[in-house]
User: Fold this.
Amino acid sequence: MAHVVPRQKLWLERNGRIAFSDYRVGLLERIGELGSLAAAAESLGLSYRRAWGKIKELEANLGVRLVVSEVGGPGGGHTRLTPLGQDFVAAYRRFQRRLEVALGEAFAAELEPLLATGLAEH
Amino acid sequence: MAHVVPRQKLWLERNGRIAFSDYRVGLLERIGELGSLAAAAESLGLSYRRAWGKIKELEANLGVRLVVSEVGGPGGGHTRLTPLGQDFVAAYRRFQRRLEVALGEAFAAELEPLLATGLAEH
Assistant:
């Protein structure tokens, strides 16, 4: 039997532009873990410039401040999430998990029985 | 206040290849309405060859026969959906609608309150 699985991609838009996405939440999460935009960017294979541009872009699109940077010091600058940035990451992960569950349920209810029938006939 | 909206893209995969999607269900639906692959392809801005290739590809991926063609006759050939093809289209549309509802609910529950707070502070 063919192993057919449902997939979904989620994102948020504002005025037709991507305001938040799986990719962007991953970048924020990495900043939260590593305390450094440079380290977060490197761990995701992004240039520092590109990662910084993404953060500024999504702050502008959402209209909220998500990260705070401190320049200089012995180990170079640090970047951390604001409390709102932390809340956003957690809320977006819950949003994703709800829809993963809904995806599995909708597939099982609507498509799986039909696929099983169609493939059995074949 | 920023008007942020949730979006999702849905599809089915088999062995890592796209087996069904919004684009493909639209093509099948148009075939069902118009009774002709050529007319369906034209209405979607696809070449006949490309539309036919898509249909064959998704039949192979799902392992089911979705359309039947009759060659010749006064108006040229005709293509119609098999009963299973019709059931697929209807089931996929129900699958989509369930997830549209779930998307709105998850967004309202998890992200909307936070966006409203964040933007009010701003």
About this structure: The mean pLDDT of chain A is 89. Strands of chain A lie at 4-14, 17-21, 67-70, 78-81.
